[in-house]
Specification:
- There is one protein chain.
- This protein has 92 residues and is α+β, with helices and mostly antiparallel strands.
- Helix content is 43%, strand content 24%.
- A three-stranded antiparallel beta sheet has the order 2-3-4. A two-stranded antiparallel ribbon has the order 1-5.
- The protein is globular and about 35 Å long.
């Protein structure tokens, strides 16, 4: 399974007053609105947690089967990688 990390040029923001979550690409100024789950996933990647750890955490947090979590997680990761929010980390 691929290993992902948060792009070092991304800043995550949580506006507690409004309950809104964002990912900012520092170099380009692009920003992306996130929901709480997306924000949680990206924070886990910032901490370099494995996909297995993220799936377990989300499954426990949301009381959802791990297969369902994984099926929702993969498209989110693909889109985040495409938009430069996360990067693939090789094991080299």
């Amino acid at each position: 399974m691929k290993k992902y990390i948060l792009n070092k040029n991304v800043s995550l923001r949580n506006e507690e007053a409004t309950g809104k979550f964002y990912a900012f690409l520092i170099k380009t100024g692009d920003h992306f609105n996130l929901n709480k789950t997306g924000f949680m996933i990206l924070n886990c990647l910032k901490e370099e947690k494995s996909l297995d750890e993220i799936v377990s955490l989300l499954s426990e947090e949301m009381l959802v089967d791990k297969i369902i979590v994984l099926n929702d997680l993969i498209p989110f990761l693909d889109l985040s990688e495409k938009n430069g929010i996360i990067a693939y980390k090789s094991d080299k």
